[in-house]
Amino acid sequence: MKKTGMQKLAILFCAAACLFVQAVHLEGQSRTGAGSKSFDDAFSDMDKAFNSVDAEFTQEDAYYLGRAVAANILAAYKPYTQNPALTQYVNRICQTLVINSPQAVSFNGYHVIILDSPEYNAFATPGGHIFITRKLVEAAASEDMLAAIIAHELAHILLKHGIAIIGDMKLNDEMTAAANRAADFAGKDNAAAKRLMVFRDSITKTMDTMLKNGYSQSQEFEADREAMTILQRSGYDPTALQDMLKVLQQVQKSQKGGFNTTHPSPADRIANIENARYRTQDTRKYRVPRFKNK
């Protein structure tokens, strides 16, 4: 697909967000001038990307877009760090799904992070970052159910739903103003830190829209169907997705926010896939021990 000015502006925002996060770690270097060159080079690359309207939306573009979204998620949620083995476990599940998925190539691979949150929710960025809340992980009663959660988010990435949202976004006054500021920066020798500060608020608000509004119902349904295919190809039980949705249906009334605001109702999602039939050998019993020891 061709990049529109809106898509290029989004990439510019996203890369700036990534640099803003990195700036905390480079503060000492920046004071001595050691870090300014890398910032200037990065902005020079972004200026080129912004102006090359005929370039395709590459995997590298998706990665930096994803990093910006990930930065915003981690600003709202803390990562769950009390059980590193659990994080390794869900990442191994993810890699199993990835190697059995068509066209799963990513600029920097796929990574799962557990968020320390009592919500039932999960997010995926275009760059291969998958976030699952601790509560949702705890709700899974089997490895296959965990795999179903990850497969659904992986499907969003493979189906490029995040990129589609960027393509559908319309310019508003705030983003137009930011674009004008970006043009000014391209011709001035401003400090990188000043550039980042100017973009910070616009980045947060723009990406916040993507996170809180969620995907469309048709995209969620498509991701569920694709997830079942991925599960089947990976040797997992595709019906585990229905099992997971039934759990979410049970907790739906007590859940404030979370999946209620970012996903269609579990009942609608179950109806969307309940007639799907996949041939697969039942090997769940072989995964029970490692699930118990996770």
Summarize the structure.
This protein is mainly alpha-helical. It is 65% helix and 4% strand.
Task: Explain this structure.
With 294 residues, the protein is mainly alpha-helical. The chain has one domain (5-167, 212-292). Helices cover 65% and strands 4% of the residues. The protein has 15 helices and 3 strands. The protein has helices at residues 5-25, 27-32, 36-51, 59-76, 84-99, 134-139, 143-158, 161-168, 173-186, 192-213, 217-234, 240-251, 259-262, 266-273, 288-292, and strands at residues 111-115, 122-124, 129-133. The chain has a 3-stranded mixed sheet with strand order 1-3-2, with helices on both faces. Helix 1 packs across helix 10 (192-213) and helix 7 (143-158) crosses helix 12 (240-251). The longest helix is centred in the C-terminal third of the chain and has 22 residues, at 192-213. It is globular and about 40 Å long. Residues 1-7, 14-39, 45-55, 169-176 and 193-199 have low confidence and may be disordered.
Mean pLDDT: 75
Could you tell me the radius of gyration in angstroms?
Answer: 20 Å
Spans of at least 5 consecutive residues with low confidence? 1-7, 14-39, 45-55, 169-176, 193-199
How many strands, what sense, and barrel or not for the largest sheet? 3 strands, mixed
Strand order of the largest sheet: 1-3-2
**Secondary-structure element sequence?**
HHHHHEEEHHHHHHHHHH
Structural class: mainly alpha
State which percent range the strand residues make up.
under 5%
Structurally, the number of domains stands at 1
